[in-house]
Amino acid sequence: MANRGDLARRLEDISGRAPLEFDESKRRMAEAARWTPEGVHSSFRAGGSPTPLVIERGEGPYLIDADGNRLIDYYLGLGPMILGHSPPSVKAAVAEQLERGILYAGQTDAEIEAGELFCRMVPCAARVRFTSSGTEAVQAAIRLARAVTGRSFIIKFEGHYHGWCDNILWSNAPPLDQVGPREAPTRVGRSRGQDPEAGEHTVVLPWNDLALVERRLAAGDVALVLMEPVMCNSGGILPVPGYLEGVRESCIKNGTLLIFDEVVTGFRVAAGGAQSRFGVTPDIAIFGKAVASGFPVAAVAGRAEILDHFARGVIQGGTYNANPIAMAAVVATLNELADPGVYEAMERRGRRLMEGLRQALQAANVPSVVSGLPQMFNLALDMSEPPRDYREATKANKKRYVAFTTALLRRGVRALERGTWLMSSEHDDAVVDATIAAAEEAAREI
């Protein structure tokens, strides 16, 4: 195995520049691990290559880490920073609210304005309730759907993620030797300590297979079908033509509620989310991430006759729900995203980045597939066709992809190791050019 000096010289030979180092991040992460398991406060932040980073500040499309490295960022806080890091309008709105107060255990004009903006932008949203996280919003939506339908069963899909609670953290990333037959998948828990009884009413199916959904719904005992309308967390997989429409029709026919988990796609792929982009309206939708530019806000939205059950005995609460500072961020963010030009620019630049990455890898004879939507897409190595479901997505060479993202990071580009690339309004043409140039060098290295 090459030593560190050999690797540094190899990288410099390829690019003409010394590779970035991350020694201070490594040191601080080791210190943090004395007080916090793995040094992180979310299990999904552990294990970055060559190390989880310690960030000093964010500026537009850039992050500056503890070593002083200036990195083009495609993590974007795992999705929320759609306006880039430190957007001026959001910071100004939050600063103004801070002068008024932090938390009241009462209602504010900001949350009323945020609710109106949200409902005017999202097709399914006649009503909305804000929460503090996507996990909470999912649980509220499940409870609501069971109350409305009087049924207990949930259908969810392999590879889809809906938060870390015991009743829904099933078959999110199951090993292929445990998944069982495709027509009747085995429900596989994601975490040690997960209550097996909590999943007794959770049915797992492969995504993008309408016939299997129709067959299970025909039993008449399913309260809700819960899905990411684009399979964001495992492969950037788009719905096949007619799939969303078919599930929508089957849910109506069988008295089941359709729930879109738009925590990732909401206000990212279009102002009204994936439901707006694809023209398929669910009964309930869950939003988060991009709705508040990094402040802890999520939402449950849907038809009035459904959401109004929150006023008729369905309990959903939270001390920090719709807190004034977060609501000021929502209002500022949604006002920015109401401009169609924001999405048009991200669409154009995202498409150019997708093609640039594909060409960079092709030139280096690295097989790859780029799939998804321009504001949020997935890059997989050693594949020849876009995957249609989780089982196909697992064929990607994850180890080689991590080598690629590590090579990119040493050239100043931070991309998620799981394959997802997220665009912001601040990733301009010069940033895209620099990213493609780094990708060309990284592709040659691997």
TrEMBL record:
GO terms for molecular function: pyridoxal phosphate binding; transaminase activity. Keywords: Aminotransferase, Pyridoxal phosphate, Transferase. It comes from the Bacteria. InterPro entries: Aminotrans_3, Aminotrans_3_PPA_site, PyrdxlP-dep_Trfase, PyrdxlP-dep_Trfase_major, PyrdxlP-dep_Trfase_small. Its cofactor is pyridoxal 5'-phosphate. Gene3D superfamilies: Aspartate Aminotransferase, domain 1, Type I PLP-dependent aspartate aminotransferase-like (Major domain). Pfam families: Aminotran_3. Transmembrane segments: none annotated. Belongs to the class-III pyridoxal-phosphate-dependent aminotransferase family. This is Aspartate aminotransferase family protein. It comes from Bradyrhizobium sp. LLZ17. The lineage of its organism: Bacteria, Pseudomonadati, Pseudomonadota, Alphaproteobacteria, Hyphomicrobiales.
